[in-house]
Amino acid sequence: MKICMLTSGHDVFDNRIYYKEILSLKKRYDQIYLVAPGDKDFVTEHGIIVKCFPKRKKWYDRMRPMKDIFNIAKEINADVYHAHEPDSFQVATKLKKELNAKIIYDSHEYYPEAFAEHFGFISSLVKNIIYLYEKRLAKQADCIITVNNILVDKFKKYHDNVQLIPNYPVIKYRNFENKLNKKPTFIYVGGLREDRGIFKILQAINIIKDRDFKYIFLGSFETEKFELKCRKFINNKLNNMDITFTGKIPHKRVFDYLNISHVGFVILQPDNWRYVNSEPVKLFEYMSSKIAVIGSNFPMVENIISSCENGILVKPDSPQDISRAILKLAENLEMVKVMGNNGFNKVKEIYNWNICEKRLLDAYEKLGEKLK
Question: Where exactly are the transmembrane stretches of this chain (predicted)?
């Protein structure tokens, strides 16, 4: 079976697409292609053939990439096309008609809500339009893959083959001990944005700036404006604090920083509906690294942290609440170690990619039977 992944906006080495799904499929299938934005075609160290097209210049630059994806993907002539956004899946529906291929829609984000955020006061109208657009397309899928029960319930209203494959971390079963810093170390991993609580964390640090803790932020700022806001605040109020911004780093190096940290931040903000109703990937990545968590008191996050006893819930828009959590954990590192182990054990038991891999391979096996 020849498989072709399609993405219009994700990186070639996107964690879910490449390191989870593609590498899982590679265990069973030899011919795997990835069509993604990039500078040039190449073959990865795992033998995945990557075909690239120029990245879109703006969020609304969508037609030209779709044409590029179609032309490249048609030439590949795959048996299964696996698309990761509504626009790349629209390409897949055309490939299905022309090549009689099987197609998968992998909805791992709230796409209608995310797209509508660009439209201000008419965002509700745009969201409803995109819902209808997505529904019309998704009905043509041979299989729909998604990441949580809210999305499963949405797609099951009009499709009978919906698979729940959460974004749980890949666990390497080995015994290891974190090489923790001597002083309490707090880490954030991901894009640096206002709605992910970065500025709230800085405000919380300012409240307790008399304490000697280390803070690490892994990732790049989404906008220059927000970076200037954070840099100005740090220069004016936190100039002598031990705060490190690494910028974007290779996926494999993230673990080096997690390994020295005690606590991870998941401070998504409440004004974003998508965040309130999500299971953040970073939460599970922290858990898989044996570190405790300070998390937003949203229902899905609360359900995980409360049941696992691996961290503290806070009001994400309250710097005072965040600062209290930082102090509580920093002053009891033995408790932090217990929390880290609690989270790690739950990941080994429940929240791991091995479970998801089996579901993914089963879904492909069923599609393969239909191709015979």
Answer: none
Q: 320 and 282 in one domain?
A: yes
Do 286 and 266 lie in a common domain?
Answer: yes
Pick from 188, 200, 334, 218: nearest CA to 270: 200
Backbone conformation region of residue 219, classed left if phi is above 0, alpha if psi is from -120 to 50, else beta = left
pLDDT values of the chain reduced to their tens digit, one per residue, 372 residues: 999 999 998 999 998 999 999 999 999 999 999 999 999 999 999 999 999 999 887 767 778 899 999 999 999 999 999 999 999 999 999 999 999 999 999 999 888 888 888 788 898 998 999 999 999 999 999 999 999 999 999 999 999 999 999 999 888 655 556 678 889 999 999 999 999 999 999 999 999 999 999 999 999 998 999 999 999 999 999 988 999 999 988 877 888 899 999 999 999 999 988 899 999 989 999 999 999 999 999 999 999 999 999 999 999 999 999 999 999 999 999 999 999 999 999 999 999 999 999 999 999 999 988 887
**pTM of the predicted structure, to 2 decimals:** 0.86
Q: Give the range of the structural domain holding residue 217, as residue numbers without chain letter.
A: 185-349
Indicate whether 67 belongs to any domain: yes
Cα–Cα distance list, 157 to 15, 154, 161, 252, 259 (Å): 29, 6, 11, 39, 43
Domains in the chain, number: 2
Q: Are residues 57 and 197 in the same domain?
A: no
Element (H, E) at 186: strand 185-189
Biggest CA–CA distance in the chain, Å, is: 68
Q: Does 173 fall in a domain?
A: no
DSSP-assigned beta bridge partners for residue 356: none
DSSP secondary-structure letter at 241?
S
